[in-house]
Amino acid sequence: MEYIYAALLLHKMGKPVNEENLTSVVKATGSDPDTVKIKALASALSEVNIDEALKNAATMAAAPAAAAAPAPAAKAEEKPKEEEKKEEEALQGLASLFG
Fold it and tell me: Tens digit of pLDDT for each residue in 33-80?
């Protein structure tokens, strides 16, 4: 989890989320960095728009509350299937880091 926090910190500070910076942040905490996890995270995040992922995470947290409400009569615009598939694949790559 510390690697995700390091990536979020780097993103928040406007720094590139790459192997070198992730390693520096983890070392600064006094931990020994796991280069395999860092490489996997840097690779997975290179394909992800972090701002968009954070917005989606906030939406997902609100989803259980929305599920209790009655469904609206008209459906909102749906994303193209290709775009959804790409997002799912990117998120699956991130999920593998949590083993």
Answer: 999 999 999 999 988 888 888 888 877 766 665 556 555 555 555 556
pTM: predicted TM-score of the whole model, two decimal places: 0.58
d(CA 11, CA 8): 5
CATH for 2-70, options being 3.40.50.720, 3.30.9.10, 4.10.410.60, 1.10.10.1410: 1.10.10.1410
Q: What is the C-alpha separation between 32 and 3, in angstroms, rounded? A: 11
Residue 20 CA from chain centroid, whole number: 19
